[in-house]
Design goal:
Number of helices: 8
Structural class: alpha/beta
Radius of gyration: 21 Å
Helix content: 25-40%
Strand order of the largest sheet: 1-2-3-4
Number of strands: 13
Strand content: 15-25%
Mean pLDDT: 92
Length: about 280
């Protein structure tokens, strides 16, 4: 008979300060649960300002923390961190490098960011008790492409960043509204130079025929109804699902974390695209 194995899963840790000076019986109760579990997991919803420095890349929604928050989480009982989220790149590549360095120094199981795409997307493993545990973490945005990790190519060096599940937002419009938007688009974006200037720093989206238009980076599609849709890139999804299946096939306990801000109007409702993600073949 295998030994008992327990896991405590929490939401995001939007932590900016050392919590060890706080005396609150409610926090102590949570710490007892975490410490009694073999695996205690949270999403580290920040980037670490450490040895590699960095610069704020956001306005009012910027978030970074000193390395001291990590021993604070450790003392609470956490031992596993997802690092893929919308704040992980708030200090740019230096913040990615500092975060990787600091979480490793405190012996956390961690995943979701990396020196390049391969590193960021690779399942990270650690043994807890008698069980091998793998962690895969990814982010689906929305966010600029430059915050996601990329491997080196012929003309580009590798970019440290976040493990990306690539998705796009498409607005379906009934024909009359679609034609109106198209006429505005043609009037405002008649110059190729205008389109090129405002595509930066992003690449223009790929369009699927005459029933789609690109309006300053937003895709509108002719349809029989009006709706907002999140479209998952099949190649990206297959790569992630393959990595998950590979680890699960090794008799490993696999934790998969997906971060995104493509919420439904009712935030408690899981979007259909998330529910159907595992069905992509």
């Amino acid at each position: 008979m295998s030994a008992p194995f327990s896991i405590a899963v929490t939401g995001q840790s939007l932590i900016r300060h050392d919590l060890r000076a706080i005396s609150d019986p409610r926090l102590a109760e949570i710490a007892e649960i975490l410490k009694a579990s073999d695996v205690a997991f949270t999403n580290l919803e920040t980037t670490i300002y450490g040895r590699h420095g960095g610069w704020p890349l956001k306005g009012r929604y910027f978030g970074a923390a000193a390395p001291e928050v990590l021993p604070a989480l450790k003392e609470l009982g956490f031992n596993s961190l997802a690092l893929a989220n919308n704040h992980a790149f708030d200090l740019g590549p230096p913040g990615i490098l500092s975060t990787l360095e600091e979480v490793a120094a405190h012996n956390f199981l961690h995943a979701g960011i990396g020196h390049n795409k391969h590193h960021a997307s690779t399942a990270q493993k650690m043994t807890f008790g008698s069980r091998s545990v793998a962690l895969i973490a990814m982010d689906a945005g929305p966010g600029p492409s430059f915050m996601y990790a990329e491997d080196a190519s012929q003309d580009r060096i590798a970019r440290p960043g976040i493990n990306r599940l690539k998705v796009s937002r498409v607005f379906d419009l009934e024909t009359g509204t679609f034609n109106l938007v198209r006429s505005i688009q043609e009037h405002l974006l008649s110059s190729p130079l205008e389109r090129a200037n405002y595509a930066q720093p992003e690449d223009p989206p790929d369009l699927q025929g005459q029933d789609e238009i690109d309006f300053y980076g937003t895709v509108f599609r002719r349809s029989d109804e009006t709706a907002r849709r999140i479209v998952v890139d099949r190649h990206s999804a297959r790569a992630h699902l393959s990595a998950i299946a590979e680890e699960a096939g090794r008799d490993t306990f696999v934790i998969v974390y997906l971060h995104h801000h493509h919420w439904e109007p009712n935030w408690q409702q899981v979007p259909d695209w998330v529910r159907n993600l595992r069905m992509i073949a």
